[in-house]
Records
---
Amino acid sequence: MAAHVPNVESIVQGLRQHHPDATYELDWSTPEQMLVATTLAAQCTDERVNKVTQTLFVKYPSPKAFAEADFDELAEDLKPTGFFRQKAQAVQAICRALVERFGGKVPRTIDELTSIHGIARKTANVVLNCCFDLPTGIIVDTHVQRVAQRMGLSTNTTPEKIEADLMQQVPKDDWTFFGPAMVIHGRYTCTAKEPACARCPFLDQCPRKGVDGPRPQAAPAPPPPRKFQGPRKVVGEDGVARPITAGGRPSTTATTLTVDPWVATLAKPMDEPWFLELLDFVERERAEHEVFPPRDQVFSAYSLTPLAEVKVIILGQDPYHDVGQAHGLSFSVQPSVPIPPSLRNMYKELHGDLGIDAPAHGHLRRWAEQGVMLLNAVLTVRAHEPGSHAGHGWERLTDATIQAISRERDHVVFLLWGKHAQKKAKLIDRGKHTVLEANHPSPLSARQGFFGSRPFSGANAALERKGQAPIDWRP
Ligand code: SF4
């Protein structure tokens, strides 16, 4: 049977049945991030954008940070998304407008949002529909455009006119669901090249306009699994994103956000004035002095050890301050530089504890990738001036990091070496986690309680007691 008059109500119903959790497939934890991600998604896959934004949103945690970034460096960061110089320009212009005109936040009306140069209705609808659940219009991207035409919901060819047609037919209460659900339907079923009409739930009523070949026999089947698994969520009055429940309303508990969980967990501190002042301070220092580690390695501890994978944390104090050493992991140095004395002592203890021979390098990336977070209390330092960036705000961020691990994770082993690290014990819930304290491995103190403390086997024993795989401590 070929129906030619689309029944919009049953299409919405079918979409709700087949894509109950339809969500726009870009990662975000704040509306400002969604705005940047949507800008980057032009001529690029959402998967690639999500990969880039995992680290991008750590490096540039706010519109101000994007607006003030070095243009060439930002363009380089955006390279994998294509058209990177144009995108860097667009992102900076949009973020500048957010900072200068809207206090660094996405405004909540479509008129205000589209008044920013470079933001068209589609992008504005993505942000306002998806982040705030505001029915400002219906998202019309290439998928929605194609599906609406094939289903006979519009004969127009421009996004604006197609959106107007859809807004006339689809009840307003359904707009914020309809757009993302049509995108999903277009991406996984009604695809551009080979629409899977045979398994499409709308086959009976779809006129299949512009689709070649005879109408197939209906054999309805679920769509293939989606590549993006993030929950549908919405930002509440308090500015916190929460998942939308099956009933369509936000739940009352904050979500574990799908953007890099570090960003989600630390979003609040990173949005506060002191953090932006800290970034300003580091940039001023970089303008006048040599600063370690290089910009793109400041957050290596976070990017190499995602929050969900932290099993052990080794707290350090300050990055190494000599040329070529620091790369963002405490105690670790770049592979080509001599092994510093503290790390040499750690290797001695590793041999005494587990019989593991010291390697010829001091690069601890292998530990970090297994879930050993190597975090310094202070993340930057001026060359040859130890402690020069202490007291400027890094400690607030890294304290918030320790608290986040303590709060969000279970059964993490904290290795606290020396008095400085041991002061952080008060941030840790000892009822949930294991804290192993010892003297610092520096040559000044290693013989007074670091050697013989057997931290590596101790950490593995604690992990195994909780049913977790031990760390392979070979560096
Ligand atoms: S897959 Fe086929 S039947 Fe389904 S909406 Fe697209 S064109 Fe219509």
---
Amino acid sequence: MPEDEDRTKSDHTSGNASINASVNAPGALTRRRFILGVIAGGAAVGAASYRFLASSSHHRSSSSDAGERLITIQVNGKQRRVDVMKQETLAWTLRYKLGLTGTKLGCDRAECGACTVLIDDVPHYSCSVLTHTVRGRKVVTIEGLASEDGKLHPVQQAVIDEQGFQCAFCMSGFVMSTVGFLKTNPNPTRTELAHGISGNLCRCQDYNKILNAMMRGAENLRKVSA
Ligand code: FES
Ligand code: FES
């Protein structure tokens, strides 16, 4: 064991010695240059990965151009003509083709609910719905909740009344889930509502305030519907 330790120590020491030798050799790298080289190498790797991402996304969009098909979908009461790829998700179409960025993309894999929209009045994760499958169906996003004159939906108003979110990244998903849930149960208990919107996550963990706001939204909605 001591022999192993000695060997390790000696390997380590000789490793250091060889680095020092190469760094200190005439005409060789100075320590400063060596460190700069490591940092620059890291930066180069970082830049390379960005370039890779950019080029793959460019590749994706250029190859998609060939595979895009013009379809019509109904979003927020309007017929929208849009070119979509066959594998394109509704979240992508809404955000990047139709400019409806109120729909957020969190996980992009059906886990967080940030991308929730209503399809035929039922909440769906739009990151997991293919756009071409919503032809002939009614899509509503957070932008479609307020009335024409700009009056907020009662659930949106409740968010303001209760200051219900911190960063609010998750907000549109929660609001859309709540609006969808209230269509089936307009007078829920707090537990029922919590259960009803449990498919939505908040990274700020602001659940208590969110539930206060959503319960207030239910109450607001009952008042205007009475
Ligand atoms: S972005 Fe769709 S569920 Fe998270
Ligand atoms: S308030 Fe920040 S993610 Fe929910």
